[in-house]
Structures are given as structure tokens and as C-alpha cells.
Amino acid sequence: MRLLKYLWHQWLAAASERPDLRAPIAVVLGAIPGALGRYYLSLLCARLWGTGWPIGTFLVNLSGAVLMGLLVGWMTDRSPLYPELRLLFAVGFLGSYTTFSSYILDASNLARSGAWAMSLAYGFGSFALGWLGLELGRWLIDRWR
């Protein structure tokens, strides 16, 4: 917690001297607790339920989607946050906690705008092509060895 407090004060100092650094510093400050949260939740789940099924990743993805929904819903209605705090929470924290929350937000935004076909193509296409991309990478490494 002291580290985050220190980093927050450093961000405030840099933001006053270098406004061009506000956004990247906000993303970094959010990314640190997001990545640690994902790591420790995954460890806890592995300890409690084993590693036979990726329940840690599953819970991270679901909780990240709920948190993104809460954050976006709150920001849309009231929009009280400074742009840097939006970046800190949405891009930094949730982006490093789980990219799934951003993926679901993008698909939801497409659907809400009436672009249902694009939403479905994006959702299923990202999954299918992502899986194929991962398998391609594995195949290439296997051939390289």
C-alpha cells in the first residue's frame, strides 16, 4: 500500500510538471495492482481447488467483466472521474487484471450501437482466431526446435 501511495504522489508531481505523462503514468499505476490481483487470485484458486481446470482465470475474467460493467455504467451516468482516473481503472487496472473485460466491453458496445453482426463477428472471431493464433505459435515453436 505504501508503494501505491508513493507512486500516486509521484504521479501528481509529474502531472503538474509534465502533463504529457499523465496518461501513461495513470495506466502504469493501475496496471500494478491489477496484475498483482490477477496473480494472487489465481494462486489462491489453485491452492483451494487445484489446477485441473483454470478456475482462477475463469473467476478473474468474470469478475473483470462485472467490474468493467460497474465502472462503465457509473462513468456513463455521472462521468465524475478525471480522464486519467478512467485510464487508471479501466485501462490500467482492469486491462492488466484481465483483457477479457475490455473484450466484452467492445463486443457490448458494438451490440448496443445496433451492430449485432459486427459484435458477434468480433466476439466469436476474436476467440476463434486467437485460439488459432496460439496454436500457430505453438506449431512454429515445435518446428523450430
Description:
- The structure is a single chain.
- The protein has 145 residues and is mainly alpha-helical.
- It is 86% helix and 0% strand.
- The chain has 6 helices and no strands.
- The chain has helices spanning 2-17, 22-49, 55-78, 83-97, 100-112, 116-144.
- The longest helix has 29 residues, at 116-144.
- The chain is globular and about 50 Å long.
- The N and C termini lie far apart (44 Å).
- The model has no long low-confidence stretch (mean pLDDT 84).
Provide a quick synopsis of the model.
With 145 residues, the protein is mainly α.
**What shape does the CA trace take?**
globular
Oligomer: single chain
So how many helices?
6
Low-confidence parts lasting 5 or more residues at pLDDT below 50? none
Largest sheet: none
- Kindly, what is the distance between the CA atoms of the first and last residues, rounded to a whole number of angstroms? 44 Å
SSE ordering:
HHHHHH
The averaged pLDDT comes out at 84
Strand % is: under 5%
Structural class label: mainly alpha
Helix content: over 70%
